[in-house]
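Question (not urgent): is this output format expected?
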Amino acid sequence: MLLPTFELDLSGLPEDEQFPAWASHVANSHPRRLPPLTGPFRSHTKFWRLDPLLVSEQWMDPFAFERDEAMVRATPADHYSLVVILEGEIVFKRPDGDIVCRVGDAALTDLTRPELMHAARNHSVVIQVARWFLDEALDPVDIHGRLPQTSATKVLVDFVAALVPQLGSLPATSALPMARVLRDLLATSLVDLPPREVGPDGRQPIRHRVRAYIEQAAPGTLNVEAMCQALGVTRSSLNRAFKAAGGVLAYDRRRRLVALHGRLGDPTEGRSVSQLGYDYGFPEKTHLSRVFREAFGYPPSEVRKMATAHLVATAPAGSLQDAYKTALRDLS
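Got this back:
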């Protein structure tokens, strides 16, 4: 089975419906159209789920995103957005001066911060990165803008540009290993940046503290009551912080599934599927198979098999807007 390609091309809609249709699937920001304000609005998007990344290739007419403080507070998004410019220009409007990204540049924005961005007609690749996934490879850094113009960033940009045309021909089981490659290239380009600042009370946000607690717990042993007591947080605040993930237990389960997937895909790993499941907190084989398939679309045994034939990738039925929003929500 190949990695499914989702595609949304609004050119078939009436002109006055094109921009509203595109804006309807935008999450975490207020979109608006930039001149020309009338006539057709080109919006052609392909995207692929590389859990825990969401990769999209976009051909867009001019538009703007605005995410203010109220939206940041109201939206439980907790991920980064990496933009690689292939054609055109994107400007990030900042109080201390605009940040202009042109062809060959990349920018990383933090969805927990306000943002105002203007994009000219462009062709770009946008990669939504779960914060916890990047934090696995790099101590949290303070990044909210254009990536340093270094050789490491150039390698990342060149790799992304070469990879995207090939995504639709990759086996589905290569999604997570490829996500790790992208994540590690991004981490390398960020390694010299300053550390992320803590909140005004001198403490990390609750989501960061909970993630650190989970990392220290044995897989599958998370006790929510004990964690609340240890961190000095209430269940209600915990539920709010992890609402987008379906709750902290669902978040913990998905992290363990992603880690398990990585071990299953390692050719040097000698443990059986059952043993690995037990080690990652899934002692019952039937339960493991069910939750693994729900998360990735195929059973654990499939990860250890090489694709024997190229099959046509067919996106699951349903709204593409819903699929994209669901993919974004799962990142957080």
